[in-house]
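Title: Comparing notes on inverse folding

I've been comparing how different people in this forum approach sequence design from structure. To keep things fair, I'm posting one structure and asking everyone to reply with a full sequence. Here's the target:
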């Protein structure tokens, strides 16, 4: 790359700019408030983890570990490290490391960037953002259902109605083992219709073959042995418990026997929220129970369940539905004809901001302070409700002129600089 050549962002890792970031902040605020209402507490984990955490936690033969992780060797000590591709393994690692389950179960949530090396497409990027809700230390179907209801409550907050909930049960390891043997035997008998990817997975991860999108394989996988037929009484009772709570809360669901999720750590309940509005990237939130992951990563056995949603996909859906997101509005724009007045102007603006007024100051450029006409144009373009004119005559009288730019456009009053608290309330009332 030439010394002065323009450097662009890495493909699939996007900047979030003013005008876009307000939508992100709005969504994040809705999520934080909702998590507080369900008593889920925030956890923040490092972006970089030991590679072995994901190999052991996600599964060595999953697509994520085999193909998609950004892994590298630490130059200082030779450790194998990875940019986190998902949040659950990191949260479980933190729970174990800091003994968070010593006094009972914990409900937690996270938000942040994840990284997977895959082909960028709408709503699917190499750096993407997830929100996850996880409940550790709770074994019953009530918490599975609670997490699903948490997601439903979020859709209501966001005004999202065009979704469907698909659920399934993966049972327990011994039940999956019996089904796995039957499934492999079935697949071996139907290799003639299988693509190369399915043949590769047939013995290492046969459940993922059921998740194929290949039209030529649909009849074969639809007729394949179903895991639900191999579940014992306890697993079926757990699944029925989840469904009963969803029914009692008016949440529609359908059983999808081919729903297996892409991570090895799931057992019992799995679920996905799906929409038809985003094309191929229709899953907006997914999760399930992972009762063996805590022990798998090195902790004492503990049940757990959770979900994750893709922030980019949810924002795409919000945009697709035309959901009204309130734009941030300025209360006032400070017009300063003479740079010499800046010390007094900034003192006044500081007091206004301390009183809760959102105000933008006109600042000098390399060409000096712009003229009054130019400053008023910028004030109007800013969307501010009022202009604050700090002219020499006003300041000599210990005043500022407050001019309406929206409602009552053109109306203006003189306000005393020593009565900032009094007219701060007037500025805020115009919001």
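Reply #1:
Here's my take.
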């Amino acid at each position: 790359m030439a010394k002065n050549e323009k450097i662009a962002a890495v493909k699939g890792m996007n900047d979030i700019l003013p005008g876009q970031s307000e939508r992100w902040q709005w969504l994040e605020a809705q999520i934080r408030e909702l998590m507080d209402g369900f008593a889920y507490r925030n956890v923040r984990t490092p972006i970089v983890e030991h590679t072995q955490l994901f190999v052991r936690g996600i599964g060595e033969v999953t697509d994520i570990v085999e193909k998609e992780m950004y892994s590298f060797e630490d130059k200082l000590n030779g450790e194998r490290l990875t940019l986190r591709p998902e949040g659950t393994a990191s949260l479980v690692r933190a729970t174990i490391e800091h003994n968070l389950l010593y006094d009972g179960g914990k409900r937690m949530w996270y938000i942040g960037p994840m990284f997977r090396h895959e082909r960028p497409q709408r709503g699917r990027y190499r750096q993407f953002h997830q929100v996850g809700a996880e409940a550790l230390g709770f074994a019953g179907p009530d918490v599975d259902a609670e997490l699903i209801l948490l997601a439903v409550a979020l859709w209501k907050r966001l005004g999202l109605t065009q979704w469907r909930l698909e659920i399934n049960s993966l049972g327990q390891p011994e039940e999956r083992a019996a089904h796995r043997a039957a499934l492999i035997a079935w697949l071996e008998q139907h290799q003639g219709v299988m693509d190369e990817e399915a043949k590769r997975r047939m013995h290492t991860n046969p459940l993922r073959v059921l998740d194929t999108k290949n039209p030529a394989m649909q009849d074969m996988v639809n007729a394949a042995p179903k895991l639900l037929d191999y579940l014992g009484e306890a697993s079926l009772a757990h699944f029925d418990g989840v469904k009963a709570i969803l029914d009692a809360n008016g949440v529609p669901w359908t059983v999808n026997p081919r729903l297996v999720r892409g991570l090895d750590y799931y057992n019992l309940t799995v679920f996905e929220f799906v929409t038809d509005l985003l094309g191929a990237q229709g899953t907006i939130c997914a999760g399930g129970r992972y009762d063996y992951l805590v022990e798998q990563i090195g902790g004492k056995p503990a049940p757990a369940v959770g979900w994750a949603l893709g922030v980019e996909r949810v924002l795409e859906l919000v945009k697709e539905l035309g959901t009204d997101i309130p734009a941030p509005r300025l209360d006032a724009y400070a017009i300063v004809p003479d740079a010499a007045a800046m010390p007094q102007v900034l003192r006044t603006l500081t007091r206004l901001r301390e009183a809760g007024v959102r105000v933008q100051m006109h600042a000098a450029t390399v060409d000096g302070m712009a003229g009054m006409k130019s400053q008023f144009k910028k004030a109007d373009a800013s969307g501010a409700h009022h202009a604050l004119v700090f002219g020499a005559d006003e300041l000599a009288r210990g005043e500022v002129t407050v001019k309406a730019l929206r409602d009552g456009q053109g109306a203006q009053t003189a306000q005393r600089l020593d009565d900032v608290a009094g007219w701060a309330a007037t500025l805020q009332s115009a919001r």
